[in-house]
Amino acid sequence: MQPYKASNTALSAAILVASLGYFVDIYDLLLFSIVRIPSLKSLGLSGTQLTDTGIMLLNTQMIGMLIGGILWGMLGDRKGRLSVLFGSIFLYSMANIANGLVHSVNAYAFWRFIAGLGLAGELGAGITLVAELMPKEKRGYATTIVASVGVSGAVVAYFIAQIFDWRTSFFIGGGLGLLLLLLRIGVAESGMFSESKEASNRGDFFALFRNKTQFVKYIRCIMIGIPLWFVVGVLITLSPEFGKVLRVQGEVSAGAAVAWCYGGIVIGDIAGGLISQWLKSRIKVVYIFLAMATLGIIAYFTLYDLTLQHFYWLCGGIGLTVGYWVIFMTIATEQFGTNIRATVTTTVPNFVRGAVVPLTLLFQLLKGVYGGNIIHSGITVAIISLAVAFYALSRMKETFSKDLDYVEEF
């Protein structure tokens, strides 16, 4: 294949739309966690129903993301990155608006599932498009912009939820997504995709499982992201419960903890992307972040009697230590050829997000084993998550200078 060079206008348009699309994606993904209690209370639920129904709705959303990740990924390699980018934005925007109109738990669950389907596609398509349009020496800068702008959507979701009621917060998210579709003019399809239309196994998700080498590489991509979602899905989501055991001086708000954590992740993503460009290595940067995450998790479990503000600072700090999402996504994108790249880049982050389900189930199981001690349960799950990530990273090849203009042979 001949090297494809996109114009500066095409590059700027792609980065802008991918960044803002991910912003709205994260806004919606975290908004439910933030408004879970007030939204369920308004539907007439109380007591343990708030927790049990909330977990059910979250798992329903995650199942939608797992299914959507596969469907959107295959579509992205068969029909193009742009069709997935804009199709997913439209779907989760409409689901957002519908979430603001629900009056029953069943309707809430249905639209969280649809939202999950939509949320599964945008990030993978956006990262794949940007990575294929950018020169290999500058890929890290572009993906850093996409991720850092995107994860800041969690912080905005928190402040929006403080100002407006939960229904209006969902309407705002949906409206932002629909407005974003107006920016689609000027965004060009990836030249690499256009040139690979005759390649075999385009978007064949199951081809990854028929080839041992590709399958192992694919699983390793997923494994290195597990600690990030352990922190978000367990330590931060359950921060009110942990706060009580750690004797935090005040009532911990899960929404505030999420905002602080994602604020740290934004800083980590920016720093990680820049450091990877400086070191000319993705692998070394992930090692640095995993080492910091180990220290951050130790601090989380051992610092007792913190003031509420200091605990939120800790949430921000631990968010920074797992702020390697942009590097993790870029590694996954760079590991595979053009004919399967969107499938991988779309499914990998959704399987990592979906790992919250087995992580929380393991946490609950161990809580019973440890007689209800959530600290011991959390430490055990943390050790497993970090060990898995370190092992996978030790077996991965460096991809910083890799040319992406090739197809995968199965």
From TrEMBL:
GO CC list: plasma membrane
Membrane-related topology note: Multi-pass membrane protein
PROSITE patterns: MFS
UniProt entry keywords in alphabetical sequence: Membrane, Transmembrane, Transmembrane helix
Pfam family, one: MFS_1
Transmembrane segments: 12-35, 55-75, 82-102, 108-130, 142-164, 170-187, 218-237, 257-279, 286-304, 310-331, 351-368, 374-393
Location of the Major facilitator superfamily (MFS) profile domain: 14-410
Keyword Iron: no
Molecular function terms from GO: carboxylic acid transmembrane transporter activity
Subcellular location: Membrane
PANTHER family: CARBOXYLIC ACID TRANSPORTER PROTEIN HOMOLOG
Name of the molecule in the record: MFS family permease
Organism: Pedobacter cryoconitis
